[in-house]
Design a protein that fits this description.
8-stranded antiparallel sheet, two-stranded antiparallel ribbon, globular
């Protein structure tokens, strides 16, 4: 069978386009749901929970606020005014994500660790589709994975033996 030169090029181009389309690291990340947050973080939810939600969750809060939120000093993260609510060795950080009041952007839980992440997040298809060139997946006693928040932002999940940290970035 004879294949015309134009048809062969079109087929090759189609294959290249299909391969490139499937390679994007931002494609097909699992969606963040309540079940993908450790019990110690529930009922909080990144991107939607506010200060009142976090304060209702914690038992002995130590609150630090940027001047933009009525605090006495500068407290920022990536040039965003920040509110930090610490509860023992765990902490929660809130910042504005567009218009409106600050929302939960980071959760750091002491006590939980990679065993929980490996059981609930690591095995999900697409959880290693993180932006940038950082190594994803397990690495010794640590791990790094990504999910997608309701607003489309990336939720980074990092763990070690006794810690899990979730944080939101606007990188896709």
């Amino acid at each position: 069978m004879m294949v015309r030169r134009g048809m062969a090029r079109a087929t090759q181009l189609g294959l290249v386009v299909a391969m490139v389309a499937g390679c994007g690291k931002g494609s097909s990340r699992p969606k963040l749901t309540a079940e993908l947050l450790p019990p110690a973080a529930q009922p909080l939810m990144l991107v939607t929970s506010g200060e009142a939600d976090v304060m209702a969750k914690v038992s002995a809060p130590e609150v630090t606020k940027d001047k933009a939120f009525g605090g006495e000093s500068s407290n920022t993260f990536n040039d965003h005014p920040l509110m930090t609510i610490k509860d023992g060795e765990s902490y929660y950080e809130l910042w504005t994500m567009g218009d409106g009041p600050p929302k939960l952007g980071r959760i750091s839980l002491r006590g939980e660790g990679c065993a929980w992440v490996n059981e609930h997040i690591a095995k999900l298809d697409g959880s290693r589709n993180c932006p940038g060139n950082r190594k994803t997946g397990p690495s010794g006693s640590t791990g790094y994975y990504c999910l997608t928040a309701d607003n489309g932002h990336v939720v980074h999940v990092e763990c070690s033996e006794h810690m899990i940290q979730y944080w939101v970035s606007d990188k896709s």
